[in-house]
Amino acid sequence: MEQLTTKFVVERPTGLPDRIADKLVEQIASGALAEGQVLPTETELARSFGVSRNVVREAIARLRYEGILDSRQGRGAVVCPQDERLTFRIDGNGLGDSENLGDLFELRGVLEIEIAGIAAMRRTDADLAELHSALSDLAETPFFDEAKLEADARFHRALASATGNTYLMGLSTYISFRLKGTTRDTAAVYTSDDLAKRTLDEHRGILGHVEAQDRSGAREAMRHHIHSAAERLGVTLRDGGLGQ
Fold this sequence. Notes:
Blueprint: H1 6-11, H2 16-30, H3 42-49, H4 53-65, E1 69-72, E2 76-79, H5 98-122, H6 125-138, H7 146-162, H8 166-187, H9 192-211, H10 215-232
Antiparallel strand pairs: 1-2
Helix pairs in contact: 2-4, 3-4, 4-8, 5-7, 5-8, 5-9, 5-10, 6-7, 6-9, 7-8, 9-10
């Protein structure tokens, strides 16, 4: 496995998971990783690429929901045969189109609103501990940097995990992964501390309702968060979307 240099990791302009996912795709396309082959463990991949296990996990999640990899219990991630890669896939290049981005936000809203409601009913003490930990990381710095982006994504992953539904968790993770680049763009629209405070307050509202097991409140708080996130990007959601 090709090892990434420290300079590459630090200076790259986009998110680490995207680049790691692309490198794995290159390995698969070249035949270095063959169809049916089991990938090295997350720890081994993290060491090879010089990144954290969370970065590797997110990269593998993207490739799994693009149908390139299949995670099998007891075996890890396996390279899928080419003729079995029938998948739901979001083309990141198409998100430069405002209409496509609006459609993705609408999809995200439909999914995340229901996730928040289900999480409010099913969350465990362990789920709440993870949500509070992610929120603490989100509040740690006033600047909307890569660490804050990861804390934001971690919060949404924890919500999806609280549903106990592996498919909801996987799809939510994939969509969040695809929207990370647009979230980076948002940081350039507002002053960093203003954006960070808005985002933190919205997440606190969601968590408060989840903790109180208030399904309706959790759904409404998530609806508000999705609308606000779209507005910060200048994305117009069409009439009738997200329960308008």
